[in-house]
Design brief:
single chain, 343 residues, alpha/beta, Quinone Oxidoreductase, Chain A, domain 1, Rossmann fold, 2 domains, six-stranded parallel sheet, 11 helices, 18 strands, 26% strand, globular, binds zinc ion
């Protein structure tokens, strides 16, 4: 079968579309013919050799996928061939303390499809049956492939970790990225006032159409000052941050006293100097979050289904153009998810 693989680390130019063996499902696994897959920053980090990235032999990249079940393992009773599905790319052991509490993304051996496990940018992918969910009926394969990683990550950050409540105000940095846009859509669904930032007026205009209440172009405005203006000097309840180093100090000045800063991804870098005096005096909480539990995934899907919400798809590339698609993501030019059409 055809797949986008790396055989050495080094970046996007090490990715090639090659012929590899079609995988076989184990007894508790499912083989899926991938129709569409979508890109995440993780794909780029894997090509650069992120810790945990698989090293031996050709490694298929990609975490998200939608497709059709073509074969199930002997012990899989609840999933039939022919079903239209999406995958939850989070892989956990199922037996550690965290898994038994239902916190799969806290699993000590947590892994992701496309990281330590063969990925989804391929004609076929094998995943555990527990990671297979029906494709929401209102979404086509491209839209459905855009859903899993970004939306479960945003769901857990907002709902589970930051405890978002209707009537609150949320600041979302760098609107245009998959997780940030998912956060905008989920927050608006939850009845929240949303402020978004970007350096692109075009992206801010599109965010307004999606429901953003206030927009800040940080090229010509100071974010904390603009937030203080909008919130009448109060600050936001929650700062939603996927950027990290570039935005962490800004969050300290933008959240209210007792406010929460919830972070993942750190696409602008992981290291930052912080004012701990402001942290304790203003009683701030900094909250880390990684993807989501099975419960987060299930509840995210239910909410998407109930609201008939459609993920924002920036563009669709054929799999042979995988390097172009990844380059677009690396330069941050996208507004929404970049999708690969596989078959
Ligand atoms: Zn575990």
């Amino acid at each position: 079968m055809k797949a986008a693989v790396i055989t050495e680390y080094g970046g996007i130019d090490k990715v090639n579309v090659a012929e590899v063996d079609k995988p076989k499902p184990g007894v508790r696994e499912v083989l899926i013919q991938v129709k569409s897959a979508s890109l995440n920053h993780l794909d780029i980090w894997v090509t650069k050799g992120r810790p945990g990235a698989k090293k031996n032999g050709p490694h298929i990249i990609g975490s998200d996928a939608s497709g059709i079940v073509t074969e199930v393992g002997a012990d899989v009773k609840s999933i039939s061939t022919g079903g239209e599905v999406i995958i939850n790319p989070g892989l956990s052991c199922g037996i550690c303390e965290h898994c038994r509490r239902g916190e799969q993304s806290e699993c000590a051996s947590f892994d992701i499809v496309g990281l330590g496990h063969q990925g989804s940018f391929a004609e076929y992918v094998v995943v555990p049956a527990a990671n297979v969910f029906p494709k929401p009926k209102h979404l086509d394969f491209n839209e459905a492939a855009a859903l899993p990683l970004s939306y479960v990550t945003a769901w857990r950050m907002l709902m589970t970790r930051a405890g978002l409540q209707a009537g609150q105000t949320v600041l979302i940095h760098g609107i245009g990225g998959g997780v940030a846009l998912a956060a905008l859509q989920l927050a608006k669904m939850a009845g929240v006032v949303v402020i978004v930032t970007s350096s692109s007026d075009d992206k801010l205009k599109k965010a307004k159409i999606l429901g953003a209440d206030y927009v800040i172009n940080y090229k010509n405005k100071n974010i904390p000052a603009a937030v203080r203006d909008i919130t009448i000097d109060r600050g936001v309840d929650i700062a939603f941050d996927t950027a990290g180093a570039a935005t962490m100090p800004i969050n300290f000045d933008a959240v209210k006293r007792g406010g929460k800063i919830v972070i993942c991804g750190v696409t602008s870098g992981p290291k930052v100097e912080l004012n701990l005096q402001a942290l304790y005096w203003n009683q701030l909480s900094i909250i880390g979050s990684t993807m989501g539990s099975n419960d987060d995934f299930f509840r995210m899907l239910k909410a998407i289904d109930a609201a008939k919400l459609k993920p924002v798809v920036d563009s669709v590339f054929p799999v042979v153009k995988v390097r172009d698609a990844m380059t677009k993501m690396e330069t941050g030019a996208q507004f929404g998810k970049i999708v690969l059409k596989i078959s």
